[in-house]
Write a structure and sequence with these properties.
Radius of gyration: 21 Å
Number of domains: 2
Shape: globular
Number of strands: 20
Helix content: 25-40%
Largest sheet: 9 strands, mixed
Order of helices and strands: EHEEHEEHEHEEHEEEEHEEEEEHEEEHH
Distance between the termini: 33 Å
CATH topology of the largest domain: FAD/NAD(P)-binding domain
C-alpha cells in the first residue's frame, strides 16, 4: 500500500454525480481525490452509454426548477470543455389523457411556462410520423428537451476536474471507511485521509455505508437497454428531428417506456422500460430476466410500426432506486463530514451538474441552493425503522 495521503475531500464513485461533485469541490479550491473501483471508462454502473434524455417534463415543480439551473451548468461545461454535450430534439410525452400522472406533467409544464406544444389526434401524425397515438391518449411536446451525450459529458467533466488540480484514481476499490473528525479511506491500493468524504457509489452505496453504520432502503435493478431497427432507414433519425419520447403508461404497462431517436447506432432507435429486475451489481450478468423486453416488443409493435419488433442490440445498465424514486442528498445522520448522494440512476443523469453543486455545498457546510427536504434521509425514518 502507498503511504497516507491527505485531501480536503475524497469523493467515492466517478459516475456523473461523483464527477460533478469533485469538479465543484475543485472549483472551490478544495484539494480533492475522486476514487473509482473500475478502470475508467467502464460500463459496470449507471453513467455509461452514449445518450440520455434531458427534460423538464416532471410532475413536481422542484425538479423543473432545478433543471433550469442544470441546463445553465451543462452549457457552462460545454463552453469550458469546448465540446457539444446537448442536442435539442424536443420530448414527446404520451399517456392516457385523463390519467393522474399525464395530467400532472402537462399542468406542471404549463404552470412553469415551459415551452410546449399540445397535439391532437387530428394533427398528431402531421408532426410525429411513424408513431401511433393510442385512442384516448394525449400528447404534448416539450420543445427545449433533447439528448445529452453521456459518455462525452463524463469525459469532459473529469477532464475539467483534473485541469483544476483534481486527482482521479481508478481501479481502486474502497475496502474500509473509518469515520471521525478526519475520515480515513482505505482502498486496494492506498490509504487516504480527508476532512470530508462524499459517497456517490450508485449500486454499491450500501456496501460502503455499512462501514459507517448506515443502510438506506435502496433497490438495485438491471435495465435492458434495447435498440430497435428501422424498417425504412432514417424514419426515426435525430437529423430528421424525430424527438425523444416518454409513454407514461400504456396497455402493456403502468411503468414508463422511454426512447431516443436513431443516433447512437445508425438505423437503431433506443427504447427502454423504466424498471427492471433486482440484481447484484457484482453479478449483474447472471440476471437474465427478459420480461421487460417482452413488454417493449408489444409496445413497439403497437405504437412504432416503422420498427422491427425484435431488439437488434441489447445492452445493460443498473438503476439504484429509493422507495419514492427521489434522490438522497444529505449528510450522514451521525457524521456530518460524510455526505451521501444516492438513488440518482433511473432519471438522475440530467441533474448531474446541479446535484454535484448541492453535494459540494453540503460537504462544505453551506446552506443548500434548494430545499432538500424531498431528498433527506429522515423521510425514510418515518416510514420504515429499517432505514437506519
Amino acid at each position: 500500500m502507498s503511504t497516507n495521503q491527505e485531501f480536503d475531500c475524497v469523493v467515492i464513485g466517478a459516475g456523473v454525480q461523483g464527477s460533478f461533485t469533485a469538479y465543484q469541490l475543485a472549483k472551490h479550491k478544495q484539494k480533492t481525490l475522486l476514487l473509482e473501483q473500475f478502470i475508467l471508462p467502464h460500463t459496470r454502473g449507471s453513467s455509461h452509454g452514449q445518450t440520455r434524455i434531458i427534460r423538464k417534463a416532471y410532475d413536481e415543480d422542484f425538479y423543473v426548477n432545478m433543471m433550469d439551473e442544470s441546463y445553465e451548468l451543462w452549457a457552462q461545461l460545454e463552453r469550458e470543455a469546448g465540446v457539444k454535450l446537448y442536442r435539442q430534439t424536443g420530448l414527446l410525452v404520451m399517456g392516457p389523457e385523463k390519467s393522474h400522472y399525464y395530467e400532472q406533467v402537462k399542468n406542471t409544464l404549463q404552470r412553469n411556462k415551459v415551452p410546449m406544444v399540445t397535439l391532437t389526434s387530428d394533427n398528431f401524425n402531421q408532426h410525429i410520423p411513424h408513431v401511433k397515438l393510442t385512442e384516448g391518449n394525449g400528447a404534448v411536446v416539450e420543445v427545449t428537451a433533447g439528448v445529452l451525450y453521456a459518455d462525452r459529458a463524463l469525459k469532459a467533466v473529469q477532464a475539467q476536474f483534473q485541469k483544476l488540480g483534481g486527482v482521479i484514481r481508478d481501479n481502486e476499490m474502497v475496502m474500509d471507511i473509518k469515520p471521525g473528525p478526519i475520515v480515513t479511506v482505505s482502498t486496494s491500493a492506498g490509504v487516504y485521509r480527508a476532512k470530508r468524504v462524499v459517497i456517490t457509489a450508485g449500486p454499491w452505496a450500501n456496501r460502503l455505508l455499512a462501514h459507517t453504520g448506515l443502510q438506506l432502503p435502496l433497490e438495485v435493478v438491471k435495465i435492458n437497454v434495447c435498440y430497435w431497427k428501422e424498417k425504412v432507414p432514417g424514419s426515426y433519425d435525430v437529423r430528421r428531428r424525430f424527438p425523444c419520447f416518454i409513454l407514461t403508461e400504456s396497455q402493456e404497462s403502468k411503468e414508463h417506456i422511454y426512447g431516443l431517436p436513431s443516433n447512437e447506432y445508425p438505423g437503431l432507435v433506443k427504447i427502454c422500460y423504466h424498471t427492471g429486475s433486482k440484481a447484484d451489481p457484482d453479478q449483474r450478468d447472471q440476471q437474465t430476466d427478459r420480461s421487460d423486453i417482452n413488454i417493449l416488443q408489444r409496445c413497439v409493435k403497437h405504437c412504432f410500426p416503422g420498427l422491427i419488433p425484435e431488439p437488434a442490440v441489447v445492452e445493460s445498465c443498473l438503476y439504484t432506486l429509493t422507495p419514492d424514486r427521489h434522490f438522497v442528498l444529505d449528510c450522514h445522520p451521525t457524521y456530518s463530514n460524510i455526505v451521501i448522494g444516492a438513488g440518482f440512476s433511473g432519471h438522475g443523469f440530467k441533474f448531474g451538474p446541479i446535484m454535484g453543486k448541492l453535494l459540494c455545498e453540503l460537504s462544505l457546510g453551506e446552506v443548500p441552493s434548494y430545499d432538500l427536504s424531498p431528498f433527506r434521509i429522515r423521510r425514510f425514518q418515518a416510514k420504515s425503522k429499517s432505514a437506519l
